[in-house]
Input
Amino acid sequence: MYEVGFGDCFLVTIRSGGTASKILFDCGSIKAGPRQITDVVEDILEAVKDPDGKSRIDVVVATHRHKDHVSGFASPLWKSVEVKEVWMPWTEDPDDKDAQKIRGSQAKLAMALAANTERKLRLQENLRVKAVNDLALNALSNEPAMHTLHQGFAGKPLRRFLSVCEPTEATFEVPALQSVVSHVLGPSRDKAVIRDMDPPAGQSYLRLFGGDDLSAGAPEPFREDWWMDGDPPEVSNLLSAHDRSIINSIGEGFDFDLAASLDKAVNGTSLMLMLNIGGQWLLFPGDAQWGTWRMVLETPRWRQLLTNTTFYKIGHHGSHNATPVDFVERTVGNDFWAMVSTHHVDQWPLIPKEELLSALGKKTTKIARTDKQAETPTPTFQVVQDRYIEVEIPLLQ
Amino acid sequence: MKRTQSDYVTALPARRPVKIFSTDPMLGRTAGNRIAIDVANEKLGYGPAGARVVVVDYDGGHGRFYPPVNLNDPAILMQGGLDPTESDPRFHQQMVYAVAMRTLENFDRALGRLIDFRKKEYQQLRLIPHAFYGANAFYDRDLHAVLFGYFRADRSDPGQNLPGQNVFTCLSHDIIAHEMTHAVVDRLKRYFMEPTNEDVLAFHEGFSDIVALFQHFSFQEILRQQIQKSRTDLRSKTLLVELARQFGYATGAGKALRSALDDPNAKLYKTTFEPHERGSILVAAVFDAFFATYQRRIRDLIRIATGGSGELPEGDLHPDLVNRIATEAAATAQQILTMCMRAFDYLPPVDITFGDYLRALVTADYELVPNDEFGERGAMIEAFRLRGIYPENVASLAEESLLWECADPGVPGLPLQGIDMLRELFFAAADFGSVSAPWASWGQQSASSARSSASFAEADSDMEITSEMAKVLHKYAQDNLQYFHLSGQLKIEVHGFHPVFRVAPNGQLLIELVAQFAQTDRSYTKELGGIPLRGGTTLVASADGKIRYIISKPLPSPNLTDSKKKEAQTRLDRQRTYLRLTDLADPKLSYWTQDEIANRMRLRMSLASLHQGVS
Output
């Protein structure tokens, strides 16, 4: 687990016999601090060097397109890295009609929200508007990074767009990863899940604000000769100045609701994977939200699978709705390894959610978090301050 | 007295004709879309400003007013109201007023009393037809207003609208009726806005759709047209079963906003959370009951028309047959709507579930029409069963087990000696009578309304009750805690007391007295996300004060019986689970401030954000 601030970057190296296979989960973020994301990329390239001095990764997994998960792929350094396969959620499939639609509306909504909030921020500093702006920017498509994932890397990698709907394909082995069985737990193609990815509220917001330039104010409902110059004496006393000021500002609060649902929508596209590597069960949920989790927990086969978990990448920087209580308290066993990549951000006082981490703490003491590196239990984990935290998990078979 | 001075000559008409779009402007000049309806002829000022609702045409997006219409202007009176048009704001005001009153009158009639909108600082509910720019409309309790938005139709996919044309939510019959119903429900049951379980907000939404939907059937011309077109199958995708068509098309959805029958097999699942979606199951169940009753009622007509075969021939139906069927459809729809509204007096004051609603429907109807002459009640039970809506704590879905439990005969009756009952009944009857003859009070306040506004100021509350009556009832509840499953440790709020007059189809007059009590336990507020734990009891008594039904939602309390203790605990657990589940589904939770988190259930009560983009 690399220290990337409020982002995700995990490298899994599987050593068996004399060879090593490597899986990279995401690479994005780092804003504060001395290190840049390119420093992290350089670290990774060094770590994945084969004896011949060439950097090779067997599988690159991009769980979803949020900047804090993919920004690192914008680096030109990736051009020289040989990759065998790139795995992405089905929502990234360039040829899939539903996926195109979802990506289109998410991007448009992000742009509209970003433009709207930037205009407001120029007028006035406001923490809430800043928060909306951050959420929108995080969701804005990151073209160079997405280009690397879709067309870049050396070695002509095979691209797989994974979904959970075809049961036969949801569990598979690939030649690139010997003796690793992968289970795709999300995202689903279920209608309800798709609707979460393309929320109706966002659609109507776009229709309202996407096409029109509203900087001059709302469009006029009536011709000018209907406008009154003063207040009509018969009814004006029925609406106090206070009431009018409330009515004048209707709609201001909606941006935040939308930004939050956009964030959830993009997180909802997260590829959720369970890898069985030599008898160890590694769960990488990306930033999957309740929609995906619910389907997993309600499907007996997947629920059973979750009980095996021996390593858990804590979802969405430890936020409350990326790790359900049902999973922590009633599904997963005890004494597993867990890691969370997180960082305190002023706008998000409740991430990471301490109650969640202490609930996990009751199940296992083997938890590492990048925001509290000094408290990492050693020697279970090795900490290289401000660079990465490492854990060695023995293969059982 | 000269004949020319008598009421016969001088009295003004009881009804006022006004024109509206029967659906919305999208249907344009389609026959039956521009119609005249009539509403009670009350005294009207500019606005229009009536006794209970007033239209205030303030545009918050531009900070200006549009000129208020005077419906008494001879130029307007002589043409029976302004003609429907999108470009004249005065017509918008007229239509909002007319549909709002039509909706209110439906409630008045069904409940046997006038819905009262007087609140401490306001005399009327305010309707603001062009309040803001946005594809939304909502009722706001704090503003004591219904606010309608306007917006531009989608440029790429506007349906039958012009791309980018102005769309006014205040010109949609369905949106007005829906929002008015929210306002009425909030007046009748102020705690039904607090999301204590997954059914509460869904009930608000579903019920509002039911009212909008069944009011369609009172528009004769459209009804006849659609019966002809669908060959009597009103379930088929007709204008009648679609809600807010223009809104849906204008926002690019490519269909009406909602329909009674989107999915004929939709059932109520634990996992259906979104209030509109969950509410639509309730709408579907009620519509199924309507359809079954309607079919039974027209079967003989079709047999007569087809020489006994019951098979309709090819081609157009005979217009006489269509007329007769339309009459049956309209009557059935009105009966079902009335039945749905009447159930309100038999609902608990807090924490409603769809199951409670079914029980209230059945009980209210049973009290009025014990023999279920038209089979509506049976149809309703069957429809709810098919949609997967079951009440808790009932042994079966047989009618007698769905009725609320009868009160034990040992329960002390209402203290009628402490209330001047005759006076109450008299005023209530006078008030109610004034629905049909409002002009009597023209120019002067009726005795009864003067009386109640005085007591409003006195009681400093917006409840339908006077303070001396509240005292008597409070003592009565305090003395009989154990019967009413109230907690001895918490304050009892008296939440209204009113006599109800109803006339059964057989002509029998039914008088009932309904009292509501509520209790609030604030020790759970923090744990429950900012809303307190509430309990309460509705009492239904016969005119002599004898208690007939005790409909309670108990709070945890040591003075309860074991079974009620268990019920209280189950309710608390359910509310906790519901909070946990809404938290999981709410993307804002991670991004709220501590303060907002502490009050998150309160924030979720806002109809403005609930309706965002979906009306």
